[in-house]
Design goal:
Elements lengths: L2 E5 L2 E4 L4 E8 L8 E6 L6 E6 L5 E3 L7 E6 L4 E6 L8 E13 L2 E7 L3 E6 L1
Parallel strand pairs: 2-11
Antiparallel strand pairs: 1-3, 3-8, 4-5, 4-9, 5-6, 7-8, 9-10, 9-11
């Protein structure tokens, strides 16, 4: 059973930092594109950062230079280092994997974690 479990959220003052971790299990994630999304109350879920199997990263323009996504394929883990946090970064942050190798050459697709709350106070 494929699972993504996020941790590391919390309450922080503006200008502070948090590091989110997404621990994946139940398959091989090294071929996956892994991403962090966020959803604020009343708003649509948006992609914050993504990283390919080869380590290429892309970012939402408003977080570029403040957030860094990284992955450790040996640990089936993806991270999001968030610096210089601002109140507008407040949201539930979700981990996503586009595909997972679950058996031999069998892939399953589109997995989400349960989310972790990030709250930034002004």
């Amino acid at each position: 059973q494929v699972q993504l479990v996020e941790s590391g959220g919390g309450l922080v003052q503006a200008g502070g930092s948090l590091r989110l971790t997404c621990q994946a299990s139940g398959g091989i994630f090294s071929p996956s594109v892994l991403g962090w999304y966020r959803q604020a109350p009343g708003k649509q879920r948006q992609l914050v950062a993504g990283i390919t199997s080869g380590g290429e990263a892309n970012y939402l323009e408003s977080v570029r230079g403040r957030f860094t996504i990284s992955r450790d394929n040996a640990k089936n883990t993806v991270y999001l280092q968030m610096n210089s946090l601002q109140p507008e970064d407040t949201a539930v942050y979700f981990c996503h994997a586009d595909r997972v190798l679950v058996y031999s050459d069998l892939y399953e697709y589109n997995f989400w974690g349960q989310g972790t709350q990030v709250t930034v106070s002004s």
